[in-house]
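Entry:
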Amino acid sequence: MEITLTNRGISTERPHMSRAHFFIAAAAVVATLSLAGCSSPQPGEAAPAPTAAVVATAAVTPAPTPDVASTAPISDIQAAADTFLGALDQLGIEHSEPVRAEVGASGAKARFDITVNGFEAGINVFPGANTLAAWGKLSGACGGIFVSSGNAVLSLNSSEGVGKSAEIAPTIADAVGGEARGV
């Protein structure tokens, strides 16, 4: 299953039921069971005579509701990715849409593969400052170039794209209110 992070949120190719749809379906089942009367008469008892009820209701036009995606809280993972994507867009730096990837031994709680200026890069979101600091030390020891913001980093290419990465890292850091390392 491929998970993709877009500017509208994390999406998967496998369809699933949203919480709102689940609760609506559950409410419909409860209402149906309540109206049907889940009990039956005891042996020897007569079934109640059917009754006809007339219910008059006024036609109500529901007010438009905003999309669920616009009202749902944004996860810290999504917020971190959006921070870097927004900065890249604002600065006019070419990039691909991030694709969720395995975290491996990075210590990150989420990782996304992305290309920046045509070179492989990544967004890592860490569970805390200590994990990010440990990752940063290791990255620095390997000659890595990255921009940190909060508990997340945009890891830029430090091999064939090293010159361009070193050039854009401070600009991205300024845009996200973060820090450029390895430049």
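Helices lie at 19-36, 68-71, 76-91, 129-141, 162-176.
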